[in-house]
Amino acid sequence: MVLLDGKKTSNDIKDEIKVAVTAMKERGEKVPHLAAVLVGSDGASLTYVGSKVRACEYVGFDSTLVELPDTTAEEELLNTIKGLNENEDIDGFIVQLPLPKHIDEQKVLMAVNPNKDVDGFHPENFGKMALDMESFIPATPFGILQLLERYQVETKGKHTVVIGRSHIVGRPMSILMSQKGPAGNSTVTLTHSHTKNLSEITKQADIIIVALGVPEFLKADMVKEGVVIIDVGISRVPDASKKRGYAIKGDVAFAEVSEKASFITPVPGGVGPMTIAMLLKNTLLARERNA
Fold it and tell me: Which of 134, 138, 152, 282 is 20 to 30 A removed from 127 (C-alpha atoms)?
């Protein structure tokens, strides 16, 4: 069994980006500039945005953090986005989700200039991705593709089962895994909460990508020997034996499934670190495309 080490791979990618940015500086070129908009003070969002800022510092990007209170009106947020769209110094930006309930998330995502949408959430980028055109691939699916490619996991002609159909992970993965490319050319089955006899489908899978948000959902009796497992889930599960009072679990029962897997991502340390690395990669692409 080979562990798909997202922490190591993401560090490799950040080092590659750092080299590219250093070369830009030596040529006297403008370095990439990533901005993040944070509305409110959600703990997980604060942690995630802090990680992005530190990652920008490491690779040599300029970064801007726009912090707004959770009482911010929708119109005020849309005006902030308009300003970022028009700011030529900023190559790409993200609006950290989730947003407060009084703000229409879809309206906000639609307001982002597709050429600066380094999260890859705008419908224009999603549509271009589906049509195999140049676009920004959502960071988590982009990271999964990189893990599969860099560990030389064979995907051509394989049966990939995706569990979960979110617009952020499940649905884009089902498209990307079927497309031509180093981590593609597989036959994809997209499953979800209404899929009947799910375990019968997963037992036939060569590759399983789980993005449900249900701790330890995928068990050993649901997979075959030699399966490749990509676990996107991350949940806090109460655990009195831990100092912090909880344990971090993925969507896969790791201890038992890893006994049968040929490749598997750990949680934490698998897909998670790749997301920030690919956000940086998309920002570098934005800088190159907008040059």
Answer: 152
Q: What is the CATH number of domain 139-273?
A: 3.40.50.720
Neighbour tally for 149: CB within 10 Å: 15
Catalytic residue among 52, 116, 249, 281: 52
> What CATH number does the domain located at 28-113 have?
3.40.50.10860
Phi-psi region of 284 (alpha: psi -120 to 50; beta: other; left: phi over 0): alpha
119, 206, 231, 251: the active-site residue = 119
SS3 assignment for 189-258:
EEECCCCCCHHHHHCCCCEEEECCCCCCCECHHHCCCCEEEEECCCEEEECCCCCCCEEEECCECHHHHC
Residue 102 near residue 127 (C-beta atoms within 8 A): no
**CATH 3.40.50.720 domain range(s) in the chain:** 139-273
Residue keyed to tokens 């009195």: 240
Whole-number average pLDDT of the chain: 95
Whole-angstrom distance, CA of residue 76 vs CA of residue 70:
12
* 83 band by pLDDT with thresholds 50, 70 and 90: very high
DSSP state of 88: T
- Listed in sequence order, the residues at least 6 apart from 53 whose beta carbon sits closer than 8 Å to its beta carbon are 36, 63, 65
Say if residue 27 is exposed, middle or buried (CB neighbours under 10 Å; 0-12, 13-18, 19+): exposed
Q: Which residues of the chain does CATH 3.40.50.10860 include?
A: 28-113
Given this model, what pLDDT does residue 211 score?
A: 96
* Active site (annotated) includes residue 52: yes
Residue from 57, 59, 76 nearest 68 by CA: 76
Does this model's pTM top 0.85?
yes
User: Active-site residue among 96, 116, 146, 206?
Assistant: 96
Q: Catalytic site residue 8?
A: no
pLDDT given for residue 193 in this prediction: 86
119 a catalytic residue: yes
